[in-house]
Write a structure and sequence with these properties.
It holds the Pfam family Glyco_hydro_16. This is Endo-1,3-beta-glucanase. Helix content is about 5%, strand content about 40%. The protein is mainly β. Strand 22 and strand 23 form a beta hairpin.
């Protein structure tokens, strides 16, 4: 269950939250909301979690479930206070340890309740304030802390992932200053939710790094409007949204027509760290905990009315200017990297079949655009190629134009490729999608634009 790589920033909100003490209490619910679950992790130092709220998951898998929890992680989960304990200062600490033989242990706790979901027409918010393991560089190799939720039908089945849904509110690997948030659903591999990658976004921590201070991570599940949404936030800033209309009705229903349970854990090794260098290895330092200040679940009742449909895109992007590829509003499967192309900056890399990026509010004006071009590079192996496609307003829309690309001489060997498109006027959300008959990465993109 791998989450990979949308960004917004609001430094003032971030700074205000980071300034709270490490033992801050769970916030009271806003007007119109009620708290349905909360744990401040108050208790004597060295004691375990409150088993009225939490249950330990131990071993290397669920009983009869996939080995290594289905992710390839290498630790053994325990209920020992060496791995899972309160610190006496209002925090829970989940600490990976390594014994003299090189074997790793860690902790994984789950809420006993598995009925967390919004009421009809209402909202649900799952939130935690936590500090990622404070370790970076080579010493962090293999670390994989997470705050997440799984659909209730997973319990007792263990083989119905990802159809029953997964909400990764906070994931991190290798001590990077970054938070990944992802919804998993559908079928694997591939399917409507691009598994095993899922539908994901990412954001760096502002102010203190994710490892250097406490930050607040949340998902808000909103059933109040005509289109159900999962909105992921970091320090109060929503940076990634998954909407019901991004997948087919059956996939969404299977992932959301039930409750969820909440999980806190630190894995070591596995698929996600493997995508960023692997580990753990001999240089990895044990003993760095995920520190959790509080977990709270709040809900707002339905109003009996629905939110009116959203207004059309506001047209904040000029179709005929240069749209930097890394300036996306949402994405799935892409990675930002430094480019050596003229002008410098960043490009989008690691683009493969099923990946996409969204650029909201692109204004084409009243004279139809009939050409699309993009700055691309490819170091794909022989026989690997794919299509760069443009779609309007929905990823399920038919492409209005596309071009094929194969190896250009290297991942930083850039060329501008034009393509004809169907005439477009007005303001639209533009999806850049990538389609290939192979699973390998086949293109990088630096910028895109349109012409008459």
């Amino acid at each position: 269950m791998i989450a990979l790589v949308s960004t917004l920033g609001l430094a003032a909100a971030s700074a205000a939250l980071v300034a709270l003490p490490a033992s801050a209490s769970a916030p009271p619910p806003p007007a119109g909301w009620t708290t349905v679950f909360s744990d401040d992790f108050n208790g004597p130092a060295g004691s375990g979690v409150d088993t009225a709220n939490w249950q330990y998951t131990t071993g290397t898998s669920y009983p009869g479930g996939p080995a290594n929890f289905g992710t390839g992680e290498v630790e053994t989960m325990t209920s020992s206070t060496n791995n899972v304990a309160l610190d006496g200062a209002g925090n829970l600490r989940i600490t990976p340890q390594r014994d003299a033989a090189g074997n790793w242990t860690s902790g994984r706790v789950e809420t006993k309740r598995s009925d967390f979901q919004p009421p009809a027409g209402g909202k649900l918010r799952i939130e935690a304030r936590l500090q990622m393991p404070n370790v970076t560089g080579a010493a962090a190799k293999g670390y994989w802390p997470a705050f997440w939720a799984l659909g209730a039908p997973f319990r007792g089945n263990w083989w119905n992932w990802p159809g029953i849904g997964e909400l990764d509110i906070m994931e991190n690997v290798q001590g990077l200053n970054n938070n990944w948030s992802t919804m998993h659903c559908g079928t694997s591999p591939g399917g409507p939710c691009n598994e095993t990658t899922g539908i994901g976004g990412q954001k760096a921590c502002d102010g203190a790094t994710c490892q250097g201070g406490f930050h607040t991570y949340a998902v808000e599940w909103d059933r109040s409007g005509p289109t159900e949404q999962m909105r992921f936030s970091l320090d109060g800033v929503t940076f990634h949204t998954v909407s019901q209309n991004q997948v087919d009705a059956t996939t969404w229903t299977n992932a959301t027509n039930h409750g969820y349970f909440v999980i806190l854990n630190v894995a070591m090794g596995g698929g996600f760290p493997g995508a960023y260098g692997g580990g753990p290895d001999a240089g990895t330092q044990p003993g760095h905990p995920l520190v959790v200040d509080y977990v709270t679940v709040q809900q707002a009742a339905g109003s009996g009315t629905t939110t009116p449909p959203t207004t059309p895109p506001s047209g904040n992007r000029d179709a005929y200017g240069t749209i930097q590829a890394e300036s996306y509003d949402q994405q799935s499967g892409v990675v930002k990297e430094t480019t050596t192309d003229s002008g410098g900056g960043q490009d989008l890399g690691s683009l493969a079949n099923g990946d996409w990026a969204l650029y909201r509010g692109v204004n084409f004006g009243t004279t139809a655009a009939r050409q699309f071009s993009a700055r691309v590079a490819s170091g794909a192996a022989g026989g690997v190629s794919g299509l760069v496609e443009v779609r309007l307003d929905s990823r399920s829309s038919a492409p209005i134009g596309s071009f094929a690309v194969a190896n250009t001489g290297g991942w930083q060997s850039w060329r501008t490729v034009p393509a004809n498109i169907s005439g477009v006027t007005g303001t639209h959300d533009v999806y850049l999608t990538f389609t290939s008959g192979q699973g390998a990465d086949f293109v990088n993109v630096n910028w895109l634009g349109f012409g008459h």
